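Pasting as-is:
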Amino acid sequence: MTETIELPAGATWTNWVGNRTAEPAHRAAPREEAEVARLVTAAGARGLRVRVAGAGHSFTPVVETDGLLLDLSALTGVASVDAGRRRARARAGTRIRDFYEPLWAEGLALINQGDIDTQQIAGAVSTATHGSGTRFTSLSGVVRAVRLVTASGEVREIGEQEPELLRAAQVSVGMLGVITELELEVTAAYRLKQRVDLWPWDEVLERWDELVSEHRHFGFFWLPTEESGALYNLDGHGEPMADRCYVKIYDEAPTDEPDDPTPGRLVDRCYRVYPMEYDPNFHELEYFVALPRAPEALSAMRELMLSSLPDSVYPLEVRTVGPDDAYLSPNYRTPTIVLSVSGKPGTDYWDYLRAVDRLLGEFDARVHWGKLHFLTAAQLRDRYPESERFIAIRRQLDPGGMFLNDHLRPLFA
């Protein structure tokens, strides 16, 4: 006899910055993997679509569904650490910041991370969230195994012995099933030495190759106006900021160098240096361009933004990311420069963002799956060489399209 599962009634879901909402018929917050499997099975029996809400940091409609919306925030915690193999397993709802102390206690750390650490690990991995540095991949690139509840309710462990499936699961935008647990490759614990300065635009471009190649992490915010820095809580300490670059350089600190709490010159454990504080006052677009074209793309973006004021008042954030092999990764087999811009909530910023899309389309830009974008199905197939392979695997694991929604279906059905 088939077990009857009651699905809780839905309630409005809203993301972190408030630009996306959903009205699912049902919402549930399972506390264990077996409960996830039962809920997915029950949704399938009712013909419902299923999506998962992480910490809500995506600006795109990736979470939205009219069916069952799952909240995995109770499925949390670092489950195990293997210092010898340099592996850590964590449940899907574990936030990035929750890795810090368990790893450090074993003499380990995340290999790399971004400057927001409140994201849930499954959501961050599924959208290819990244830090900076051409020697390092995104978080997705260090995933070595995934536990997944598929559309049939089956629990599958996908590891390195199934490389094609793993490459699909590393960046899946929630389309293969519900991730319940991941295994990440980690590294020996390290400390960072920070340098933050305001530099002229021309100096950054003149030193581009050196800055990218010689530092563990290098990135910057280019500030089109004096008002730009305050939008991201960037402090110029009284110096002029318009048309200058707020440069961030991080290198590993020597073991004999003491900690230093000086702002802009921090020396501390890596996870105490990476995070920044952002207000939810922006709606972000983020595109990736092959690294050899970086100087050309940067100059074109500066020119566009100066001609687009005041819509383009938010800083241009610039980072680099190393290559990986995930089928939907924006860094698939190429190092990239990452270009991020934002629109101001409450304004009609779409013409500006579409102009950015057209410009970076000339550079065959790939997109961040959790940030605003205008990617078409034709562009997906042109810019992501393994997109058809991903779609074939998606159809294999979810033939009925349970884990698609109106945003993803035109690209991946």
